Amino acid sequence: MNETHASSSRADSLSALKAVAAGIDFADLRIGAHGLFWNEYRPDDAACRIWHWRDNAAHCLTPIGFSVRSRVYEYGGGSFCLSDEDVVFVNEADQQLYRQSLTGETPQALTSGQCRYGDLQFANGQVLAVEEQSNQHRLVAIQLADGRRQVLAEGADFYSAPTLSPDARRLAWIEWSRPHQPWTATRLMVAERDHSGRFTKPRCVGGDADEEALQQPRFDQAGRLYCLTDRDGFWQPWVESESGLQPLPSAAADHGPAPWQLGGCTWLPLDREHYLASWTVDGFGRLGMRTGECVQDLTGDYSRFRNLALDDRFVYCIAASTTAPSAVLAIDRDSHQVKVLAGGVALLPAAHISQPQTLRYPSGTGEAHGFFYPALGDVANPPLVVFIHGGPTSACYPMLDPRIQYWAQRGFAVADLNYRGSSGYGRAYRQALHLRWGEVDVEDACAVVGYLAEQGLIDRNHAFIRGGSAGGYTTLCALAFHDIFRAGASLYGVSDPVALGRATHKFEGDYLDWLIGDPLKDAERYAARTPLLHAGNIRVPVIFFQGELDAVVVPQQTRDMIKALHDNGIAAQAHYYPDERHGFRKATNQAHALEQEWRFYQAVMNQQPD
């Protein structure tokens, strides 16, 4: 075969280790009286630490031995908050709250026991949090002075986003009940203090229906309550009024992602007609300050925005572009000048970066979305790697992903898909996966190969597919039920959804029923969409990567799939990582998996004539 299929002239410029080492990420941006703070993950030691921007430089607050990460609902989020003089955070090892001064003393435990905490907010001398204990969830307030705990709300299956009004008289939050997910149907609740200082019985302000999901409640300084709701088809900002929730002027676009993690912030109301927000257009993020129908565009050169914060002078956010990875930004509200406070280091010259092109293509009776990254170098009809994101109700974004550049530099084109069911394109698109997981996502993954081949952009005979977690399930279904791909890679992927349903955690306890159906009533449907039961249909090589500590997709699923393929004479490989859970966090393991996957595809192509 032509060697340009395996590597380009720049193949050595971005090694697997360099690609994953660049995966520094940020979360939980907070602004307070003492400045700006954020949580920073570094793959070299897989730890998350709080950083403080002061004296025109970033300073790490979290000492060695601590890592700031919540595991509430398994996906965590909202792992720290700012009090008047301290930082309160969730320690990853024991999931307890710790209090740390800004002068660097050893953190002191604020809680103890078997509970886990997340979505932290500080208000009125208390830490508001989602508390998780033995699959029970509630909202609590913990006194910063003595650790005394008060239950604020309980009885619902799930809670998020506890928010106190500036005068401390009103408490708002989001809750939802099984079988719903936070992106299918939620309720916006409010409780008010009585004369004794206790909160009255809460009332539902919005939601309480199967066709509305609300998120990110906010109070402005006047005490008005706002939220994002998809009542009109997109997650857009609405405000409470005497007659109920009323829409604010906004773009017909999603102003928030599917809330897999707690503590998200993609919009901030300032007053009745003035708010800061991020939203998506054809998958590309926009950032702006809106006053009525007028929008002050702050997007600049960036394509994704999250974790917004602001003060009188700056808008702060975590952002990424098509040429630089995630960064903490300060954007001057008057001049729009951008200052990078952390991250955002360019890995490669812009000329050596494959830029995303919007994908919008027909699939089945619908239309699917995503991004196409051309192969770098002088490669005619390059091989294609189709990326399938996890979730599956999640999304990929048009931002610099070192893994994609790794493939592009080796002469592969990449299709990064937002198949039907992904978020960022409105409620109807997101709901398209209902009872059809393993069908419409697979259909979209297969259709993109034919579409790109018809455009003369790829070699349809050298198409590969890869995905992690739920993306691994789509990958295995595509290989089992269609003859499109020459090989595939499953990273901690689902091969037996029934087994997953028996082992999964409460947050996703009913997710499979929504995606496929009731395991008992719809047993035939499950059997028809279970890759393990149809391993005999797979006629191409497959490579697997699995964490031995994975409690979501247990290692036995991968071992069963490997055995079934080997029994059928298929060249399948597996790599197990004893120190990884669901989703790899350590740089050495991520780099090993990436390089082994590339070598695997290279070997497959070398075995086939052009």
Report on this model:
There is one protein chain. The strands form eight sheets. The chain has an eight-stranded mixed beta sheet, with helices on both faces. Helices cover 16% and strands 36% of the residues. The chain has ten helices and 36 strands. It is of the alpha+beta class. α4 (440-454) crosses α5 (470-481).
Which keywords apply here?
single chain; 610 residues; Neuraminidase; 8-stranded mixed beta sheet; 4-stranded antiparallel beta sheet
Count of folded domains: 2
Q: Helical region count?
A: 10
Mean pLDDT: 93
Describe the global form.
Answer: globular
**Order of strands in the sheet with most strands:** 29-30-32-31-33-34-35-36
User: Low-confidence spans: pLDDT under 50, at least 5 residues?
Assistant: 1-12
User: What structural class do helix, strand and pairing data support?
Assistant: alpha+beta
